[in-house]
């Protein structure tokens, strides 16, 4: 999808999109277009239900009184509510309305409106971003699509009085949108294409952007003592991987962490031994490339959806890609634990006890509560090796979070109020909302084991919270937040800026979180 910006004009040919403010008020360019068409827009408003409310649209094909192929009227709603997110939704709405009609290009006339909370350039850039995100398609496996089944719209020209500035603003947005698309592609791929090895190879492509990429094998993880992660992987023929991505936008720390005896991580003098000004932000992702449930096998119905149980890992790859592509002035580490959870003669059994990298022992009650076992070792590894300023993990961790929050919010758990507030604000700014849930000792008691330091599940109540309590045992004093994205990583219906399928949730959120709070100016 090609998005471009041009001076505000009143086209006489082609496909034109014009806005109408709530209650049928015409912005200046729409009024001029109405005059050009002999009052057609005014008559249309008087004779129908379209009144310019948000989400309303009306397509007029070959309108009389001019040479236009089509005129799409879109409701702008109230000027006071037309901010960046509303403009993104407007761009998405425009794309969805035009894509099926066979027109290759359209011109959007977007006036500067005095009552909006965002200026003309911001509105235009956000509209372009919304259209770009909605235009995403994962159709590589269709072999017999007819031309009429494919969206024809390939170019959107946005007319604005601030075209040059809109172009500059959009360039940064498009970089992030590219990272979202990359993440969506990873999540959409089937399990026979994306496995731990192939996902690690996809992550290696970030080296082209200046990211340092390190991939640890099962042998190396076993030497380190990552038995919680490896226990999940032992039923699969696909070897587990741990991928570490380092973006050093502030320059490399004085000395990189290195392996010490018995797999422990230590630091050279003046290096990563203590968190400091150049210590990285750390993002950790659950990467279960297919989750059958293991011996605690899932029901057959809808198990094909478990290809996206690596959406947290894909989002981490996506945000590191976004930071590197825009040369963000920040040090960041992304770490993803990649496993496939399968039943076999070698698979982990309910009742097994494993010793995690931290030295804490875990009784595995349910092999389908595997994501927390993967994250436990990766969280400890990152904390111990990199001494980060903070850690944020993303995981499609629990079905219970969908029961609690549906598909509207991701669950947020945090040990630090400022970190939680900053993540919540970033999510609200980009339309990826979070809802904070509690942590507490009473929930922690639910995962007490009779034969080990802890068990990997509690009882049926507060399942998302007890999962977060489990993870909390592997972060020690590092500020930490856990995002349970099980309800928002995938959508079964078209949403404002995400067509049906993988959403890429978390990439824009974390990119904004970094930009607003941690980048050097």
- The residue ranges in which pLDDT falls below 50 over 5 or more consecutive positions are 255-273
Report mean pLDDT, rounded to a whole number. Answer: 94
**Estimated radius of gyration:** 25 Å
In percent terms, what proportion of residues is strand? 15-25%
Cofactor: Mn(2+)
Pfam families: Peptidase_M17, Peptidase_M17_N
GO molecular function: manganese ion binding; metalloaminopeptidase activity
Binding site for Mn(2+) 1: 291, 368, 370
How would you explain this protein's 3D organization?
- The chain has 521 residues and is α/β, with parallel strands linked by helices.
- It has 2 domains: 2-162, Leucine Aminopeptidase, subunit E, domain 1 (3-Layer(aba) Sandwich); 196-517, 3-Layer(aba) Sandwich (Aminopeptidase), CATH 3.40.630.
- The chain contains 15 helices and 21 strands.
- The strands form 5 sheets. It has an 8-stranded mixed β-sheet with strand order 7-8-12-11-15-19-16-17, with helices on both faces.
- Strand 5 (105-109), helix 4 (120-134) and strand 6 form a beta-alpha-beta unit.
- The chain is elongated and about 80 Å long.
């Amino acid at each position: 999808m090609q998005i471009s910006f041009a001076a505000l004009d009143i086209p006489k040919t082609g496909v034109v999109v014009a806005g109408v403010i709530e209650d049928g008020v015409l912005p200046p360019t729409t009024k001029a277009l109405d005059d050009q068409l002999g009052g057609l827009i005014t008559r249309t408003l008087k004779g129908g239900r379209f009144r310019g409310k948000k989400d309303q649209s009306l397509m007029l094909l070959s309108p009389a009184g001019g040479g236009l192929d089509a005129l799409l009227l879109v409701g702008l709603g109230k000027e006071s509510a037309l901010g960046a997110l509303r403009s993104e939704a407007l761009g998405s709405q425009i794309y969805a309305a035009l894509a099926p009609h066979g027109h290759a290009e359209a011109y959007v006339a977007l006036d500067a409106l005095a009552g909006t909370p965002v200026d003309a350039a911001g509105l235009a850039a956000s509209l372009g971003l919304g259209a770009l995100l909605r235009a995403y398609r994962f159709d590589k496996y269709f072999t017999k699509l007819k031309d009429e089944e494919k969206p024809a719209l390939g170019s959107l020209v946005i007319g604005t009085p601030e075209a040059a500035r809109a172009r500059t603003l959009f360039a940064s947005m498009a970089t992030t949108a590219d990272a979202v698309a990359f993440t969506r592609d990873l999540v959409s791929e089937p399990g026979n294409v994306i496995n731990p090895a192939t996902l690690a190879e996809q992550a290696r492509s970030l080296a082209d952007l200046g990211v340092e990429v390190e991939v640890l094998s099962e042998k190396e993880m076993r030497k380190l003592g990552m038995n919680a992660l490896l226990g999940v992987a032992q039923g699969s023929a696909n070897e587990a991987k741990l991928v570490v991505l380092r973006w050093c936008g502030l320059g490399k720390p004085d000395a990189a962490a290195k392996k010490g005896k018995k797999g422990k991580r230590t630091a050279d003098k003046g290096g990563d031994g203590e968190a400091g000004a150049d210590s990285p932000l750390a993002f950790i992702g659950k990467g279960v490339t297919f989750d059958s449930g293991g011996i605690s096998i899932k029901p057959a119905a809808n198990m094909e959806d478990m290809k996206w149980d690596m959406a947290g890992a894909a989002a981490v790859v996506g945000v590191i890609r976004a930071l590197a592509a825009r040369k963000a002035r920040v040090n960041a580490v992304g770490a993803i634990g990649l496993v496939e959870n399968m039943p076999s003669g070698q698979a982990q059994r309910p009742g097994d006890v494993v010793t995690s990298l931290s030295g804490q022992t875990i009784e595995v009650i349910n092999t389908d509560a595997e994501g927390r076992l993967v994250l436990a070792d990766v969280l400890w590894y990152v904390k111990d090796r990199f001494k980060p300023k903070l850690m944020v993990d993303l995981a499609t961790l629990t079905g219970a979070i969908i029961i609690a929050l549906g598909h509207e919010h991701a669950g947020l758990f945090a040990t630090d109020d400022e970190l939680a507030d900053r993540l919540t604000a970033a999510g609200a700014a980009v339309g990826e909302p979070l809802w904070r849930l509690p942590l507490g000792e009473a929930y922690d008691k639910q995962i007490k084991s009779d034969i080990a330091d802890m068990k990997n599940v509690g009882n049926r109540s507060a399942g998302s919270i007890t999962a977060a309590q489990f993870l909390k045992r592997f972060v020690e004093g590092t500020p930490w937040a856990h995002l349970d994205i099980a309800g928002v990583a995938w959508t079964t219906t078209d949403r404002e800026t995400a067509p049906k399928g993988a959403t890429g949730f978390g990439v824009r959120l974390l990119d904004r979180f970094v930009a607003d709070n941690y980048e050097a100016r």
